[in-house]
Amino acid sequence: MTKGKTKGKVFLEVVSTVQWVASFLFLGVACTLLMFYLMFTSLWPIPTLYFVWQVVDWHTPERGGRKTTFVRNWRIWDHLRDFFPIKLVKTAELNPNKNYILGIHPHGIMCVGAFTCFSTESCGFKELFPGLTSNLVTLAGVFRLPLFREYIMFIGLLPVSKKSLTHLLTNRGKGNAAVIVIGGAAESLASAPGVNILVMRQRKGFVRVALEFGADLVPVYAFGENDLFKQVVLSEGSLGRRLQELFKKIVGFAPCLFVGEHMGILPYRNPITTVVGSPISVPKHIKATEEEVDHFHNLYMEALSKLFHEHKVSCGLSENHELRIL
């Protein structure tokens, strides 16, 4: 049993984490299959009415969604946080009279640190950054999945699309933080314990958005995110890796070959420390030049590297750990 915890507490943490893993991997597919199955039963009016509603409601995710504090405050998220545990660390003030784009790294297998810190209230984001509202943005395709889209909108997830970010950074006033997992699915393929590889040298869209709306950039690093699962990392150019890349190109996410503890279901109980860095002031240039984009992209990578090296030892890494940016 985990030291200092009762059996009941450990049980709740395990159940909460299994729930998260199952939701991440299977809930979207399960909801879709359920609705299509009901179409061929006597309950067919229910999915029919829902699909009509979904068409009418199609653009809601890009217009701010339907975030509810009720779902974000579920106790289940506290138990998920405590399983690892997960901690959110503030290194600088963020002005609530500005908007921000927080780039979080690395992706890991399931983005547990990003989700827990920025899509739930369990890590104290509002207390650390009063006046700011965080919204984690993810693949737009998952908002097409019936029922599942409602669940993730209640949590506050939004699609990582231009329309969605435009609404978030303009129509909702100030004090908004769009949280983007910059490396995306490509970065998940490099996730493994002890590895700190980021995919972002050619990823400049978030910088263009920041310049267009004058949103300051903030680097965030989730130390320990890559240590939650062991993954079979296929070599570049191998048949398996090419199939992974093809699947990612078609579907939008990469099928990783990973395993955790307890028959591979649970992630390892390794702590995650999500460190929020200092903001990089970005001017508003609606039509920024490539030189301007490259300038702020380089500033961001330098700030991210500095953040990593300043906090790696206090977050459990050795002085020898290096950060590779691809």
TrEMBL record:
One of its GO terms (cellular component) is endoplasmic reticulum membrane. This is Acyltransferase. It is a multi-pass membrane protein. Belongs to the diacylglycerol acyltransferase family. It is found in: Endoplasmic reticulum membrane. Its EC number is 2.3.1.-. It comes from Champsocephalus gunnari. One of its GO terms (molecular function) is diacylglycerol O-acyltransferase activity. SUPFAM superfamilies: Glycerol-3-phosphate (1)-acyltransferase (SSF69593). One of its GO terms (biological process) is triglyceride biosynthetic process. Keywords: Acyltransferase, Endoplasmic reticulum, Lipid biosynthesis, Lipid metabolism, Membrane, Transferase, Transmembrane, Transmembrane helix. Its main location: endoplasmic reticulum. The keyword ATP-binding does not apply. It holds the Pfam family DAGAT. CDD domains: LPLAT_MGAT-like. The chain crosses the membrane at residues 20-40.
